[in-house]
Write a structure and sequence with these properties.
Elements (H helix, E strand, L loop, with lengths): L15 H56 L4 H11 L9 E10 L2 E11 L9 E11 L3
Antiparallel strand pairs: 1-2, 2-3
Helix pairs in contact: 1-2
Length: about 140
């Protein structure tokens, strides 16, 4: 009995072209993940700055209420300069605070508190960021 084993030589392994295509697909996927990670960091830092701006705006509102309770009146321009001086230690670059009276009615005034800063770390053309907060305060006698 003479049995011969036939060896199938149709598939011996991967060719160089298949390996290069697989490496290219992997590289594109890893580049996409790196870009996604960068965008995530940018969004996280932007949210951090917005949180600080929100705290500054609420602080300005609370200062107005405090002055009203202690002295019976308040000055929006004084509050603006106090808040700007107090919060200048933050890492918001080129921090600016603007407090303005918008409308009055029925013994109340609407006040806009605008916090702006420059965020040029990511090389964006439009690097000005702004946070707007509106509150209602009683008219000071």
């Amino acid at each position: 009995m003479n049995t011969q084993v036939k060896i199938c030589r149709t598939q011996r392994g991967l060719t160089l072209i298949e390996v290069l295509v697989a490496a290219l697909v992997l590289a594109i996927g890893l580049a996409g993940l790196a870009g996604l990670n960068l965008r995530s960091l940018q969004a996280s830092h932007s949210a951090y700055f917005s949180s600080i701006a929100s705290m500054i705006a609420i602080d300005a509102e609370e200062r107005a209420w405090l002055e009203l309770g202690e002295t019976g009146s308040y000055s929006l321009s004084d509050i603006e300069s106090d808040v700007l001086a107090e919060w200048s230690f933050t890492n918001l670059p080129q921090l600016d605070v603007e407090i303005s009276q918008v409308a009055t009615g029925n013994g109340w005034i609407d006040v806009d508190i605008e916090i702006s800063w420059a965020d040029s770390r990511f090389g964006l053309a439009d690097d000005a960021e702004e946070f707007a907060y509106r509150t209602r305060l009683p008219v000071a006698p």
